[in-house]
């Protein structure tokens, strides 16, 4: 019962965080590890639990699906599938011992990306504005960028949204709604293919995943309802603090 309570609480809060500002992976992964799930399986199972939120977010932004310069929508989706699949396969090939050593560094990197998110987006928007009127980014640069970020997302989901927003800004996309629409769509696509590969590789604990999926969906709805009542800086500070604490816990457990 204690394990169930921990997983339900973590998934509920993670769903709410993702609906408001992101950072849900900072809670689902440590919660699963705390209940005795091996790190690689915990990473895969937590990603499955958050998939409905990505799908709902993508559908909610369906009217704003507009690819960045240098990419068509079809090509962007194909690259998302390839990168997400590659990252998921890499996770399959990673041992628990290796992932246990890697995960605190991934958590720190994801926390840093989240903390620097506003500056990173401003920098990318400035770069995109400075490039206005010049030639669009090369197809090769856009292709490599999407493959790299999608591969990261298929391997470890934390901080994915910040990376995607920064990438789209660097590629010259300036409309915020279009950037958010593409962020949600790419996240949903690469996570969906990664989940299929996780499942085929036997990495998903379905009882925990389904339990957390329900809680995360409820948390996403609740988070969307209360989002306007909580100051954004407080939310961001709380998520950054959570990420740092979880990274410290994983370092200590080594």
UniProtKB/TrEMBL annotation:
Membrane topology value: Multi-pass membrane protein
Transmembrane segments: 76-93, 105-124, 144-172, 184-203, 234-252
Keyword Cell membrane among record annotations: yes
Compartments where found: Cell membrane
A GO CC term attached to the entry: plasma membrane
Top-level taxonomy: Bacteria, Pseudomonadati, Pseudomonadota, Betaproteobacteria, Burkholderiales
Protein name per its UniProtKB record: Probable membrane transporter protein
Family: Belongs to the 4-toluene sulfonate uptake permease (TSUP) (TC 2.A.102) family.
InterPro entries in UniProt: TM_pro_TauE-like, TSUP
This protein's UniProt keywords: Cell membrane, Membrane, Transmembrane, Transmembrane helix, Transport
Keyword Transmembrane part of the UniProt annotation: yes
């Amino acid at each position: 019962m204690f394990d169930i309570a921990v997983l339900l609480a973590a998934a509920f809060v993670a769903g709410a965080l993702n609906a408001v500002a992101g950072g849900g992976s900072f809670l689902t992964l440590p919660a699963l590890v705390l209940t005795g799930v091996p790190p690689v399986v915990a990473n895969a199972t937590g990603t499955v639990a958050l998939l409905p939120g990505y799908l709902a977010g993508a559908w909610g932004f369906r009217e704003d699906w507009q690819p960045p310069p240098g990419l068509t929508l079809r090509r962007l989706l194909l690259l998302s599938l390839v990168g997400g699949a590659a990252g998921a396969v890499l996770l399959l090939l990673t041992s628990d011992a290796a992932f246990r050593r890697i995960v605190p560094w991934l958590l720190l990197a994801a926390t840093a990306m989240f903390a620097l998110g506003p500056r990173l987006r401003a920098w990318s928007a400035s770069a995109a504005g400075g490039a206005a009127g010049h030639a669009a980014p090369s197809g090769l640069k856009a292709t490599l960028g999407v493959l790299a970020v999608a591969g990261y997302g298929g391997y470890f989901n934390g901080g994915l949204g910040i990376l995607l927003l920064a990438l789209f800004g660097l590629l010259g996309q300036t409309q915020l709604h279009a950037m958010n629409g593409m962020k949600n769509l790419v996240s949903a696509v690469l996570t969906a293919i990664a989940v299929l590969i996780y499942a085929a590789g036997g990495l998903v604990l379905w009882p925990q995943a389904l339990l957390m999926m329900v809680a995360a969906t409820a948390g996403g709805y609740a988070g969307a309802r209360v989002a306007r009542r909580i100051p954004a800086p407080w939310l961001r500070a709380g998520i950054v603090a959570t990420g740092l604490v979880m990274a410290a816990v994983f370092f200590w457990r080594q």
